[in-house]
Amino acid sequence: MSSLDDLRKQIDDIDSAIVELLAQRMEVCREVADLKSQTHTAVIQPQRVREVLTTRRQWAIDNDVDPDFVEQLFRILLSETHRIEVAHVKPFEKPAKIADVLASALDAVACRIDHVVVAVANLAAASNFLAAIGFAVNNTDDTAIKVAEGGGVTVVLVGPGDKAVDAHLSEHGSGVQHIAIEVLNAGYVQELLRAANIPLLTDVVVDQHGHEQFFTVLDPATGVQLGFISRTGNRVPMSGQNVRALFRAIGDA
Questions:
Q1: DSSP per position, 97-134
Q2: Strands 226-231 and 211-215, bridge-based pairing
Q3: Angle at 71 between CA 225 and CA 26, to 5 degrees
Q4: Domains and CATH numbers, the chain
Q5: pLDDT digits (tens, 9 = 90+) for 233-246
């Protein structure tokens, strides 16, 4: 049986190979940028983006890897590719970079903005607005909650009709109710914030799918309330029931 050190060495070797492959990909992207510039071809090619995401999702399925996870990775990669193609023809000074960039314990475990929850007085109007922008607005198991998705961005719309939501709307009006940050471990982050004397509104709330989430108190200086979420189960969307339970947990706190 391999030791933990042996397995970590395998991971290090694989990660090193991934970085080398990324460097190769970026070099090809620079060649693409040169060719596009010479032929006056548009930098952004939406059809090509769709083809890349579709094929990579299928490759993920073929290799028993979650396709949503792979799509997230490739959306980040496509964003960097686009940046390189644009910056390649502009006289930007290349900034210095260092390897040690972790500024805090939170910096080591925070991953990305997972979703933004918006309380709205008029759910239909809010849904129409996001749909007009280009979001796919989908119903949930709760008629007063809709999920709008566009690329890697998720906005959860919560309409009136529930005591906790109505109280929030009465006090704050329509707007962002909280920003959910994905972290590696919600319990660990909770302890970090407690140690820093950050006021917490709830304990860690866990649903049947393995979403673990907790909330800070609404910060009066910024007007921001944060949620921290980690996933320990299958990768599934936030359900209306889940969002409703979290809203009520906040209201009861």
A1: --S----SHHHHHEEEEEEEEEE-S-HHHHHHHHHHHT
A2: antiparallel
A3: 105
A4: 4-87 (1.20.59.10), 105-252 (3.10.180.10)
A5: 777 766 777 777 77
